[in-house]
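Model it.
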Amino acid sequence: MTAPTSAPAGKGIAPTIASLFPGGLPLWLKAYDGSVAGDQSRPYGVELVSERGLSYIMTAPGDLGLARAYVAGDLVLHGAHPGDPYEAFSLLKDHTDFGIPGPLELIGVLRSLGLSHLIPPPPPPQEHLPAWRHRLEGLRALGKWGRHSQERDADAIQHHYDVSNAFYEHVLGPSMTYTCAVFPTEDATLEEAQDHKYDLVCRKLDLQPGQRLLDIGCGWGGMVRHAAKHYGVQVLGVTLSREQATWAQEEIKRQGLDDLAEVRHSDYREVEEGDFDAVSSIGLTEHIGVDNYPAYFGFMRDKLKPRGRILNHCITRHDNVDRRTGAFIDRYVFPDGELAGSGTIVRAVEDAGLEVQHHENFRVHYAKTLAGWCRNLADNWDACVAETDEGTARVWGLYMAGSRIAFERNEIQLHHVLATKTDDGDSGYPLRHEF
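Modeled.
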């Protein structure tokens, strides 16, 4: 789309909003009153098309208000595809927090924008505000709906993963793998990189025919099928998403792997079997909660044979400072998600009585993975919207582009931690890594 026509400088909604951002907005802004702010020769801009959008921005300053307006269609992005808004959001990143105006300036802002816009509209339907947020305090005493209880974790997982299997097929591609790929070369395809990731995990776990593997948080069963098909391993995968489990079991049958592979719709904490040769966790730790790390890694330890191995693959912070996830991610993407630094992960693994053998960072690989998913979303935009709705599709474009930027800037990382259940000093591990 072309840039909007000019309006009187310094007057109206757009200049007032732009004045709230420290350093100014790095793209142009047009508002429904015809006002414009910013350099209109820039290739990217946003247009505030309704009063509701202004109310979203005023009642939830920062990324949450902007996200609400964008998801609802009240804030329109120009110059970039909503499925892959990476270039535009690269400019906007770090410019979404309002400055704190002085009292007199604040009065002027409120008069200019209108006090009526301080009444918050209902959030878009894509925002995760389940009943437990309202009744949590009453039920906390009963122990049912506390943070990361089985009921609350199931609710959070279903919000994110039970969107539509067809939607995920369009975005993720044939591998149906929603975790960081590992690119063997710069020009490897996304599918090649996902296959390489699964094979690397199998080699790190030193899987051998006839062994037993437990894959917790198995998603659509990519690791389950790869280990069974290529390594002859008996594999049990568990996921809290019913949609994932149904798809995975159908694919296992289609590939004729029924004798080796199984995916259950289950909380990993409900797995009764034990004596596994290896346990893999690929993309589950983000949903566990830092306070639950001792129980989580203790569960893995207890499921292993002596000298067995675990491989933990998860998103991490670039440091070990304790902080909460941003409001947009918590409300729209991963409710109750928590990240920690890799040092925190390693310490928790060691404190559980496991011996860490290898620790590796795949940060740049996740940026490349997200770029591939955004391309898929943009290329299949109409089909993705048809499967869900336009607001949900916008959420995905926004979150994946923003996550790509965060990985590129080393704000978040992705780590593998490989450990053994060492028994009386015998880890079963070779003198040097063999993977």
